[in-house]
Task: structure prediction
Amino acid sequence: MERIAIVTSGGDAPGMNACIRAVVRHGSAHDLQVFGVCRGYQGMIEGEIIPLGVRDVGNIIQRGGTILRSARCTAFREPEGREQAAARLRTAGIDGLVVCGGNGSMQAALQLSAHWDGGIVGVPASIDNDLSGTDTTIGFDTAVNTALEAIDRIRDTAESQQRAFLVEVMGRKSGAIAVSVALAGGAVGVLAPGLPQDLDALVSFLHSARAARRASNIIIVAEGDEAGGAFEVARALEAHMAMPIRVTVLGHIQRGGAPTAASRILGTRFGAAAVDTLRDGDGGVMVGIRGTEIVRVPLSEAVVEPPCVDAALARLIVGLAG
Amino acid sequence: MERIAIVTSGGDAPGMNACIRAVVRHGSAHDLQVFGVCRGYQGMIEGEIIPLGVRDVGNIIQRGGTILRSARCTAFREPEGREQAAARLRTAGIDGLVVCGGNGSMQAALQLSAHWDGGIVGVPASIDNDLSGTDTTIGFDTAVNTALEAIDRIRDTAESQQRAFLVEVMGRKSGAIAVSVALAGGAVGVLAPGLPQDLDALVSFLHSARAARRASNIIIVAEGDEAGGAFEVARALEAHMAMPIRVTVLGHIQRGGAPTAASRILGTRFGAAAVDTLRDGDGGVMVGIRGTEIVRVPLSEAVVEPPCVDAALARLIVGLAG
Amino acid sequence: MERIAIVTSGGDAPGMNACIRAVVRHGSAHDLQVFGVCRGYQGMIEGEIIPLGVRDVGNIIQRGGTILRSARCTAFREPEGREQAAARLRTAGIDGLVVCGGNGSMQAALQLSAHWDGGIVGVPASIDNDLSGTDTTIGFDTAVNTALEAIDRIRDTAESQQRAFLVEVMGRKSGAIAVSVALAGGAVGVLAPGLPQDLDALVSFLHSARAARRASNIIIVAEGDEAGGAFEVARALEAHMAMPIRVTVLGHIQRGGAPTAASRILGTRFGAAAVDTLRDGDGGVMVGIRGTEIVRVPLSEAVVEPPCVDAALARLIVGLAG
Amino acid sequence: MERIAIVTSGGDAPGMNACIRAVVRHGSAHDLQVFGVCRGYQGMIEGEIIPLGVRDVGNIIQRGGTILRSARCTAFREPEGREQAAARLRTAGIDGLVVCGGNGSMQAALQLSAHWDGGIVGVPASIDNDLSGTDTTIGFDTAVNTALEAIDRIRDTAESQQRAFLVEVMGRKSGAIAVSVALAGGAVGVLAPGLPQDLDALVSFLHSARAARRASNIIIVAEGDEAGGAFEVARALEAHMAMPIRVTVLGHIQRGGAPTAASRILGTRFGAAAVDTLRDGDGGVMVGIRGTEIVRVPLSEAVVEPPCVDAALARLIVGLAG
Result:
């Protein structure tokens, strides 16, 4: 192993820069030449591969986004695109590749391995926490805290105006952000994929809350929820009670911002571990974390959709609504 | 003047609690009995008037919202409602009233003065900065900073994904938040009431920005903009260019959160000044700030819609877009 | 089990309020009467035991500190003090006690069990992460993030002025905060209990960094470090190089603030788990977390000093200094 | 006027980057060539003058510190140093110079004008708010808010532990930060240059606060206070009461961090106004703000020490302590 590259792919996640920094510096410290692939798989196909030195990654650990930029890439879905990407890596003399991204990026990494001989190591980075074999992903903790800050602000005005709020959070097919935010934000309910949809119970809770003059009632809705987005849920709730429900869709603010300590530490440890894995000649795996230990998981297992959110936690949220 | 009351009315604004604290403590220090009217004019009509002691307002200066709660009140629009409110104040033996709120609340205060003999002093508190006779209002600085934090987060992902974003901010009929956020956030354009709507110039800017691979392009849209909300503007822009425009509506998060230093200081100074004004027997005015000095403005002048946003500042934003 | 109480003890930690809320509401939902002991073991000795209802713990999940207050208590170190505390619990008819605090509080809980028959369950809450049998404690994640924000600010001015900074963080005998902050903050070195003290290597790093015009050099020092606090270390460093070293002692800001999502979720899950443990009749244990699972650990094992900080992580910090 | 330069000097202040961005882009938009002088007057003496294009200042408006870096420069205090700096500006063909800094930097700018014919325009940037002729300076609002966040955190633990805290804030000879922070933070007292030092009154307040079990008592001390720093004041207070007083020195964290909206807007408006002033041929002045209007002040008037802090505001703080 002499020349390795890192690519950040799919939706950007806070902490990706910490991972890039660790790959570059840990690789350099072990006498590897490190390169960056710009703009995800799109840049790989176009051969945008640049050398990265120790100084190029200074003062970035605290920045959201990714200095290598990212992009979603349709061309990579075709074998021709992947073949072209592999050819670019060969031309650049790359032996090992670190793919930093979410579920889709890991699936793409698996597909790339059919076209390219080098070692591939995945690093789970996604605000959605949508990979198996790891307790969590780079960026998830930051996204949850960003959403939580927003909830805290909304609670101030909800308390003052005695209103019910539906807040839609990100997560694509995963309800992980929704459940964490609901638990931490003191929400009275959460609607997310994989959880039982009990709008009736919610309606009856809101009725009794109003009767008891409970000040603020915040309900978290995952964007991927089967009941539809927050606006649809609001309409359904309003149909059952003469009470306006405010809706807030948090949107892209959940993706950016300075990463939390947890996201930076994860990015740093994963980045160094990915380099070590490549140096061990152990390709085709994703690094992950279990408790406090770094683990290696076959890419094929990592992309299995993780179990739906913990129903016990969801019940706890409702039980604590007071 | 022996017994005074404070009411917070309309949309809550961060810093209202600092004002309540100052009215209670400054009043008490000058041997006044201080009362709080709960839930705005609605609570006034219903006679929800409670005594407030020095300890009741401890540890609230840092909290968003209003401990007295607020509400929009339709009954107060009718003379009967106002008469009932005045009767409640008489029953409670109130001599002076501090009304803390935005433009609508000051108009209501003016109307109340036809029904009630006590002294009325307004305190401008509104995230919209929508009153004349004062440089700024309680809560405006906080709302601008909250929106700005959101813009900073969006910029991270916009940079990483090289995307254009339309961000809708609050402000009702006022473009004040939009212009401040655009200036502070390095936006490439701003659409707000009272500003010339030059979508063509925006389209041509975005075209050249894309040609030059300019990374992030953020445009701020005021909720009250004539061109319609952010979604309408996005559709209009997309019709002229083959490029997706992302939309984020910041919504109610702009209303809550711990107030900034400026909002707390303003709340504190205004609260104390309002008490002093009542003690001087100088009713029918709103306190305000001009530069660093507290001023008094007749309520009738305060409610005049302030001049539209500074077109020179809006031009500066576009000129600095780079 | 019919009547349970919760006490928060020792240094307060952000997330304690989430735990109090969960104990009260989860307990109430299972038909227990819940009480709060004010001001730690001091209040227990003085019999300050108050009933806590579901509404008493509303709108507190986002607040730092503890609504029950805390205190360090010297009287409890004597058997007479503990006997008195036990008598107070008997008088109040308490069957089960949840003790929320750090290492010292768990030791005190163990001692109390010799005087009192009720069930005792510990909840690890300490910014120092100083207990065995759990991956982490309530408040630790918040303290790390607070220190990290401070580091980010210092880095801005360090970069601008090209200066070296020593930043002292909390942690008493534990270097856990120091190592986490150094990893997440991109520090060039960390001095903490249990780590090898290599000032010479640090001096030589700073020399070469200056030669290379490396902009900012931040070194984290744990308050409990054997080399003495940050001021002593700075003097030692300055003796070896003609270069001023700035010192910042973060101090008590690390203890307060709105808890992070992780601290609130931990507080909530631990609180509910503590109630379940009492209901199971399983006293004399502390709840903890291993990976994503809640566990129960004998109190006697929990108070064993946890292993010193991970030397591999400390080496990683130095290796990534660039 | 064809070629202008900007230098940031003295202590860095958040918002300096917004000013650099505005000077470069507003200058470029008016067909000026813009240069940056690195590392303050030190870099000017050494001829570190680099061209700055529109793209060089992208994505910096949200960053603390200054991309041009700063330094304190002893050589500039001698005429030889200033002559050398002037020679460097002549060699680089600079016609106009924007000096962005605090009181010391403006004094240096005045001195430079004896050696150099070009136009000089000052921009007040200092966290200390230590210049006359302007309501405020770039960075002051950010520093106050940063200190305030720290106070809010300390209050959490002070409330929980029922302790008195002395918090030392920055400001050099100015008490401006101290008074603003005390007002906004609900402090019970403030000790700052130019204010009457009434330790006796403070002692008696703390005694009665303890008697009344007032939870938290926070006192703000300016670093430049005649009574000595916070540690000296604490010793003096402790000598009069059997009660420990905790001390926190906020230090350099007050200098960094993402600038607030107010600091960015001020930096932006001042930067553009400085360019306009140079284009008008109006050198020897500092731009400032009065209320909402930009003004121009002779440099000789700007450097006059501003009046000491408003004693009325200091009295208000004490009056509201409750």
